[in-house]
Structures are given as structure tokens and as C-alpha cells.
Amino acid sequence: MKIIVGLGNPGTKYENTRHNAGFMAIDRLAKKWNLDWNQEKFNAKFIKTKQNGEDVILLKPLTYMNESGFALRECLDFYKSGSEDVLILYDDVDLPVGKIRLRQKGSAGGHNGIKSIISCIFTQEFDRIRIGVGKDPKIPMVNWVLGKFKADEKNELDHALQEASEAAAYSIDHNFAQTMNQFNKK
């Protein structure tokens, strides 16, 4: 089983904000597989599917970013799964818009959604796809991540979301080391 989680904040107020890059990427994946977000479970938007013979859960927590880990914890407990089954897609201010970076473990790096996940699943060892949203030192971080992308960033953003969704799909049939080799070199 693979549990792919896109991080973001629910509601129209937060649509297309930098902090919702994880939601945007997992939406791309659902669209690629012709799936609809028509269920809620574990305090999250939820899709269960089978891809190439593998059970796959797509999850968009509805708990807001700072409590994302609670939805994942419920899902892991229900399916009796562990961190080795988890892939998180989320925004990263330390990467420029248009870039993605895959990692197998690491600290939260100041990201509150990842802090919540680490505290709820009791490990930093889970696969992740970081989606670059850039940063502007003149704008306070909260305002930046809750702000919308600029018009001149749309092409780079589109590229990163496509790459992130393709990497997530690729990880279904390949181990994550192979997935990193394939997508970190681009």
C-alpha cells in the first residue's frame, strides 16, 4: 500500500496559495488517474484506488497545515500501515519556483505541516517531494506562503506540479531511491 498525502489548507480562501502546492500536485495526480475527490475519511479528502496492482490512498488533510499529521495518523492506524508506505507532497520556500526535490528522510526544516506529521507518526523517515515556492526576504514568511503565485511564476509552477505528480506516480512501481534518481537529476 502507498499513502500519498498532499499538504495544504482547505477552503477557497487558500486556493492557489504557495502553501497549497501539495494540494495542487496531488490534484494533478488524481486528474491523471481520472479520480474525483468525492469522499471524506480521517478528517481528509480521501481517494482509494488501485494503480498497477498496488493499493493507493490519496489524502488531502482538512485539518489545516499545522495539524496535517492527525489525518495521516488516523489513516495509518486504520490501514495498519507505517511510515515506509507514506509519501508527502508539500511546498518548500528554500527551493525556487519550478524546482522539486525528493528526499527519504529529514527534519521539518521549519515547515509546520511536516512538524505535525513527524510528531504524529513519531519519525522523520518518510518519503517526500518538496515543491519549490521560492521566498522574498522583504515579505514576512506567513504572508508569503499564504499569498498567491505571481503571474510570471505560472509556467514554472505548472512544470513543478507536473514533475511532482509524475514522480509520485512513478514511485508506485519503483522504490524511492530509483524515483529520486529519476527526478532529482532534472
Automatic annotation (TrEMBL):
SUPFAM superfamilies named among the record's database cross-references: Peptidyl-tRNA hydrolase-like
Residues annotated to bind tRNA: Y14, Y64, N66, N112
Annotated localization: Cytoplasm
Entry-linked Gene3D superfamilies: Peptidyl-tRNA hydrolase
Sites annotated Stabilizes the basic form of H active site to accept a proton: D91
Entry's EC annotation: 3.1.1.29
Any one annotated GO CC term: cytoplasm
Catalytic center residues: H19 (proton acceptor)
Main location: cytoplasm
Example GO molecular function: peptidyl-tRNA hydrolase activity
Catalytic activity: an N-acyl-L-alpha-aminoacyl-tRNA + H2O = an N-acyl-L-amino acid + a tRNA + H(+)
Pfam families named in the record: Pept_tRNA_hydro
Annotated site residue numbers, Discriminates between blocked and unblocked aminoacyl-tRNA: N9
UniProt enzyme class: hydrolase
Keywords, alphabetical: Cytoplasm, Hydrolase, RNA-binding, tRNA-binding
A GO biological process held by the record: protein quality control for misfolded or incompletely synthesized proteins
UniProt cross-references to PROSITE patterns, sorted A to Z: PEPT_TRNA_HYDROL_1, PEPT_TRNA_HYDROL_2
InterPro entries (alphabetical): Pept_tRNA_hydro, Pept_tRNA_hydro_CS, Pept_tRNA_hydro_sf
Function: Hydrolyzes ribosome-free peptidyl-tRNAs (with 1 or more amino acids incorporated), which drop off the ribosome during protein synthesis, or as a result of ribosome stalling. Catalyzes the release of premature peptidyl moieties from peptidyl-tRNA molecules trapped in stalled 50S ribosomal subunits, and thus maintains levels of free tRNAs and 50S ribosomes.
Assembly information from the UniProt record: Monomer.
Family membership: Belongs to the PTH family.
Name of protein: Peptidyl-tRNA hydrolase
Gene name tied to this protein: pth
